[in-house]
Write a structure and sequence with these properties.
Length: 221
């Protein structure tokens, strides 16, 4: 089984990732958490943890790890300084440590709008610029990666169905449960190389939608 470090494990998507990976036949999750008080939740579910802080040196968290999912975020209520520390610098350090430790695949949870962050409205621009900086840093490396950019996140149910495109010209949302499923799917050793795409709720099964998109380069809706 491959060990997968979940950076941002105590977030909403991070917890879903942790539980789903724990039930997966191919993966063993390691939840990266910031505080010891967060251990109980994961250990009660049989999920290994490592205490590390994105804002500090957390290289030790990458020891004996095979793959990484970066699902951390500073949150909507924090200031620009925290966004820079977590969404930008934290992600960049994660990439650097992953290169150093020979990580097989790095899956980045990004955001729709990151590609054209300079054009975003003032309320979202700083956040999207931070996401774009992290994405571009990852793209410039030799790490095998997947950068996933979901639409507006909802607490809706898992559907297992999405639509995929380079960039959508429409508004839309997607449940956190479906986003987590896409992130896990992108860990598959059969999906090699480097991938970047946006996802929204849709009508095509996740594996089929991603396979068709990667094969044709055309939107799958």
């Amino acid at each position: 089984m491959e060990k997968v470090l979940i950076i941002g494990a105590n977030g909403n998507i991070g917890r879903i990732l942790s539980e789903n990976l724990a039930a997966h036949s191919d993966y063993s999750p390691v939840a990266m958490i910031r505080e010891k008080s967060q251990e109980e939740y994961f250990e009660s579910k049989g999920i290994s943890t490592v205490i590390a802080d994105l804002e500090e040196n957390f290289e030790h968290a990458l020891q004996n790890i095979d793959k990484v999912i970066f699902a951390a975020g500073s949150g909507a209520k924090t200031g620009k300084d925290k966004t820079d520390l977590v969404d930008k610098q934290g992600a960049i350090k994660s990439v650097d440590y992953s290169i150093k430790h020979g990580i097989k695949k790095f899956v980045m949870l990004s955001s729709r709008g990151a590609e054209n962050a300079e054009k975003a409205d003032e309320t979202m621009q700083h956040y999207l610029l931070a996401k774009k900086a992290a994405d571009e840093y990852l793209k410039a490396t030799n790490l095998p990666y997947a950068i996933i950019r979901p639409g507006s996140l909802t607490d809706g149910p898992f559907t297992g169905k999405i639509k995929v495109a380079d960039i959508f010209n429409e508004k839309g949302g997607i449940s956190r449960a479906d986003v987590a499923a896409v992130l896990i799917h992108m860990l598959d050793h059969g999906i090699d190389g480097k991938q970047v795409f946006e996802i929204l709720e849709g009508k095509v099964d996740i594996p089929d939608a991603i396979r068709l998109f990667l094969k044709t380069g055309q939107s799958v809706t």
